[in-house]
Write a structure and sequence with these properties.
Blueprint (H helix, E strand, L loop, with lengths): L1 H5 L11 H12 L1 H21 L7 H52 L1 E7 L4 E4 L1 H7 L9 H4 L5 H17 L3 E6 L9 E10 L5 E10 L1 H23 L3 E5 L5 E4 L1 H7 L3 H5 L12 H14 L3 E8 L5 E12 L5 E10 L1 H12 L4 H22 L1 H32 L4 H29 L7 E4 H7 L1 H8 L4 E6 L5 E4 L1 H18 L5 E11 L9 E10 L6 H6 L17 H11 L3 E6 L5 E8 L23 E5 L3 H13 L3 E5 L2 H10 L5 E5 L8 H11 L5 E5 L6 H6 L4 E3 L4 H12 L2
Parallel strand pairs: 12-14, 18-19, 18-20, 20-21, 21-22
Antiparallel strand pairs: 1-2, 1-5, 3-4, 4-5, 6-7, 6-10, 8-9, 9-10, 11-13, 14-15, 15-17, 16-17
Helix pairs in contact: 2-3, 2-4, 3-4, 11-13, 14-15, 15-18, 18-20
Length: about 750
């Protein structure tokens, strides 16, 4: 067109007319095709300016050609970018349309209908799903004002009030209402929305959705009707009926159950049936209950219960597991029948049975076994209630330790004061160790470790702890008359039992009362209760509290029997004392009257001269240490630092490892290591016992000492093995003895 209209030497530049072609071709076909007009333009310019005549281009012509190439290249790049933007916009629109289609399908399938109300313009947008839920035609014009006409008349005021509250207070809009159109039956709609406000805080828009909840409402109504029929049927039954959840909490009882208990429905749900159970049947029932519920299978129980009018009645119960719709265990459903008449007939027949005494003895033995098993299974629950007291004692001990160390730090030059403070801190730390041992012994089944103890000395050492347990509101006295007499007991368990007695006395005594610990020897010429004749040391705790009647005193040592309010006592204190005394060969004696205080005494056999240990030559384990290279395996950096210092004080050189694998690497690198001291509980899935067993195979004859402050895990394997075992915390003397024992052939 240029050549036709203007000729070869016309007024328009040789290459200008190629730029529209570059743009159009690039937009339509891409940058590769856009190179064609660029090459064609450059070739045409060269031909026009000299190539047709064989002449060389001038500098201006060459510059013009270079400018054309640069400009056309930039035009190509811009056109290609515009083409990409247009294609991206097209793809985004397509994806948006696909997403909107999928969202609309999802909302339609789920029955969810979004809606949008522009408050200033009163413009209401209802999606297709929202219209369908409300029973509106797709093209029916609708505003917020006439939308209320489609709500059931009985629900319109409530819906309007919810909307006003949302707009006024900014609360989330959520409501369930019925539709006015009842041609398809009663239909329920659940509406939910969120208010949007402008910068001035004025409500300008509400975004929300609605969905049809008619089916759920109908299902709930059917469930209520079913529950009403079930309750009517259950309440008409003459037997006691109940349902319980997985944890044992009842969530339904019938009228016969409430009438038997003599309380209303809510109180019957939380009634502690142990308070209505005859003490003679309590152990057997508890044992059967735990076993039955643990098996999740049908089980039956039978015992005597006190009815609301005070009469004791025999009830035989049958419990059946129930399951949720998905098959998961969901608790038990139970029924109990009053079979007092049948039991009375059975008792009449048993009265003429020659084997009655044997049966009674077997029943008592079974009860004792059940009490012992139950006592053990419930120890951990009691620990939760004892934690507060233990924390109080430990805080007192830490106060002594921290205070003493602070005094030593502030007055290092005062030798006398430093020695007193160090002695006080060490004594407090050892009392803390004993408290930990008491708690661990209470938390698990642990055999007693009896030793020859002078009881008066033990009590005198515990005086400070006992006074702190009582507080300043009580007058505390010691009357120790045991003298040099000794008993064979576990000292830690004895102190725990004594603390139990003192705490019980404190709880039974009003502020300002007196609590006394007495010891004296007694001689029993004949048997007394569980005790045979012999010499005993009587350790008694006497208080000036409220005392107990005969019935309460008779049950005082039963597990879980307590006169304290709910939540303030476990019923395990005196039973623990009684168990300790019986395991130590003694018993418990209670002297009390209502309003005249109580005296609870442990009678412990006095150790004979033959029981006392023979004196042996004293050996100083610290002075007899032979320096060697010790591998210390400990993952706690602070503990490792302290034990490293203790080993260095004993003259040893120390290598350290934080785990089993690192310890094995150290042994492979350093053959000079002559002894291994390892913690039992280690990171990485392998314990110190695993390390000791591995060394027994790879390094036979290498001494190994194990230590731990934990009662579970591999400690049992450690103590059962052939390696010396140290319980944390330990002193320098104990460490030296363990090292010497490990190196002794």
């Amino acid at each position: 067109m240029r050549v036709t209209l203007l000729g070869l030497s016309g007024g328009v530049g040789a290459t200008q007319t190629f730029f529209p072609a570059i743009v159009l071709v690039t937009l339509y076909a891409g940058w590769k095709w856009g190179l064609g007009p660029i090459v064609a333009g450059a070739a045409f310019g060269w031909w026009l300016w000299g190539g047709r005549d064989g002449e060389t281009l001038s500098e201006d012509e060459i510059a013009t050609l270079v400018i054309f190439l640069l400009s056309s290249t930039i035009t190509l790049i811009v056109a290609e970018g515009l083409r990409g933007a247009l294609r991206g916009l097209s793809e985004a629109r397509r994806q948006q349309m696909d997403a909107e289609t999928r969202l609309e399908l999802t909302q339609s399938a789920a029955g969810v209908g979004p809606w949008d109300w522009d408050i200033p313009t009163d413009t209401l947008y209802l999606s297709q799903g929202a219209r369908q839920n409300l029973g509106l035609s797709p093209d029916e014009p609708i505003t917020w004002a006439n939308l209320v006409d489609h709500v059931h008349p009985d629900d319109r005021a409530m819906v309007a009030e919810r909307i006003r509250n949302s707009v006024r207070a900014g609360e989330a809009y959520e409501v369930e209402y019925r539709l006015a159109d009842l041609s398809r039956g009663e239909r329920w709609i659940h509406g939910r929305g969120e208010v949007r406000r402008d910068d001035t805080g004025r409500a300008v828009r509400i975004l929300g959705l609605n969905f049809d909840v008619t089916r759920r409402r109908r299902d709930e109504e059917r469930v209520r009707e079913s529950e009403a029929r079930f309750r009517s049927l259950a309440d008409s039954a003459p037997a006691l009926m109940w349902m319980s959840r997985v944890g044992g909490q009842r969530d339904f009882v019938n009228k016969a159950y409430s009438d038997f208990a003599g309380c209303d429905y809510e109180e019957a749900l939380v009634l502690d049936w142990r308070t209505r159970l005859d003490p003679r049947d309590l152990p057997v029932i508890l044992k059967g209950q735990i076993a039955g519920e643990g098996s999740r299978k049908p089980f039956s129980l039978e015992g005597r219960y006190r009815r609301a009018d005070g009469e004791w009645r025999w009830l035989k119960s049958f419990s059946q597991p129930r399951h949720a719709p998905d098959g998961a265990f969901d608790g038990f459903i139970g029924i109990a029948f009053d079979n007092t008449d049948a039991k009375q007939a059975e008792a009449d027949l048993a009265s003429v049975n020659e084997l009655l005494a044997e049966r009674v003895q077997a029943a008592v033995a079974e009860r004792d076994a059940a009490q012992a098993a139950l006592f053990q299974s419930q120890k951990l629950e009691a620990i939760g209630q004892l934690t507060g007291g233990v924390a109080h004692d430990f805080n007192n001990l830490l106060t002594v330790i921290i205070g003493a160390l602070d005094v030593v730090e502030r007055h290092p030059e005062d030798e006398a004061r430093r020695q007193r403070m160090i002695a006080a801190a060490l004594a407090a730390a050892k009392r803390g160790e004993k408290l930990t041992q008491h708690l661990l012994a209470f938390a698990r089944r642990q055999p007693l470790r009896p030793e020859i103890c002078r009881i008066d000395h033990l009590i005198a050492e515990s005086e400070g702890l006992l006074r702190r347990a009582l507080g300043d509101a009580y007058d505390f006295r010691l009357r120790l008359g045991g003298g040099i007499r000794n008993v064979l007991v576990d000292s830690g368990q004895f102190e725990a039992a004594l603390l139990n007695l003192v705490v019980n006395a404190r709880d039974a005594t009003p502020a300002g009362g007196e609590i006394t610990i007495e010891t004296r020897p007694v001689t029993l010429p004949v048997g007394f209760g569980d005790l045979g004749p012999g010499q005993y040391l009587r350790v008694a705790v006497r208080d000036t509290g409220s005392g107990m009647d005969v019935e309460t005193a008779a049950r005082a040592v039963e597990p879980f029997f307590t006169t304290k309010p709910p939540g303030e006592g476990t019923g395990l204190g005196l039973s623990q004392v009684y168990g300790f005394a019986r395991q130590s060969g003694g018993s418990v004696d209670i002297e009390t009257r209502p309003g005249q205080g109580a005296c609870v005494a442990m009678l412990l056999p006095i150790a004979e001269a033959a029981d006392l240990p023979t004196a042996s030559a004293a050996i100083d384990p610290i002075a007899n240490q032979v320096p060697t290279r010790v591998l210390l395996v400990e993952d706690d950096p602070q503990v490792a630092e302290m034990v490293d210092a203790m080993l260095s004080d004993l003259g040893h050189t120390v290598s350290r490892a934080a785990g089993v694998d690192e310890a094995l690497d150290c042994l492979a690198r350093d053959p000079a290591i002559g002894l291994v001291l390892s913690d039992v509980i280690m990171p990485g899935g392998r314990s110190g016992v695993d390390l000791a067993e591995s060394l027994a195979r790879s390094h036979p004859g290498l001494p190994v000492v194990l230590c731990s402050g934990y009662t579970g895990g591999d400690q049992g394997r450690a103590q059962a093995g052939a390696w010396p075992f140290l319980s944390k915390p330990f002193s320098l003397d104990s460490l030296a003895r363990a090292l010497s024992a490990a190196r002794t052939p």
